[in-house]
Amino acid sequence: MTVTRRSFTHLLAGAALLAPYAARAADRYPMRPITLIVPFAPGGGNDTLGRLIGRTIEAPLGQPVVVDNKPGAGGSVGAQLAARAPGDGYTLFLGGVGSHALNPAVNPKVGYDPERDFTPIIWLANAPMVLAAHPSVPANTVKELIAYAKKNPGKLNFASNGNGSSSQLAAVIFNTMAGTEMVHVPYKGLAPAMVDLLAGNVQLMFSSSVAIMPSVQAGKLKVLGVTSANRMASLPNVPTIAEEGLAGYETGSWYGILGPAGMPAPVVERLNQEINKALANPDVKASLATDGALPVGGTPARFAEHIRSEVARLRQYSAQIKLD
What we know:
This protein is an alpha/beta fold. The protein contains 11 helices and 11 strands. Helix 2 (45-61) packs across helix 9 (265-279) and helix 4 runs parallel beside helix 11.
């Protein structure tokens, strides 16, 4: 097909005529229910977070936010579906360190590009982890653990929620930075991992403070450090792993809301504003704290930069992490 100068001029004119209608449609957004894809099964922490945010923004948006659980492949199944959806603001995605950093860094054939195929809307929250140990481990600090692990390579095991999980990633980074050789034992979820940790069948695990602290308070586990850059407000007496000898160590789970590529800027701005307001809501803050998470918020650009830096950071560990 040959495009003449006249027909090209007509195309430009048509686009100019349509632009005001597109802008008005964005101004009226949303005009129907919004689907929020959560890439994990109902009942877990990701699902709880997605429903909390959806519930909080329904009233100001004037439309229902319907959570659609699409579990599989550490978040990649849901991410693929979201990436292929229209970029009109009616399909959103609850992304995180798995779907938008770890999986793409480890698997180049993941089926989507975490930056090119998505529109970042807002960085929701961070969830630091704690390093827990069975009482039989002859170490009460991170420094003592590193010393023991180096003298006994391969003797200590660490449990995780599964291959490619945040708990595995935390231990892989620890092994790499400390020069230790603790052995990974993947489980199908947190519950079976906790059973074996409490029984002493595995000695160590990185997990959320919410999952670990009840057993610590009951004297069944001990906590050696936290994975955040600063001490957790809920555990002020527990040192960070960084201050215990691994300078620069910082990891954990993080979550954010994204949409497919090509979303209109006014729609992104509206969603960003409403979710920022939700994160400032005392009830939302309290709910996040209950799950060991800290609200972040901010601009889409801030979240986009975080995703870029996380993918780059995690690529250096890709050879040590299996997703299956």
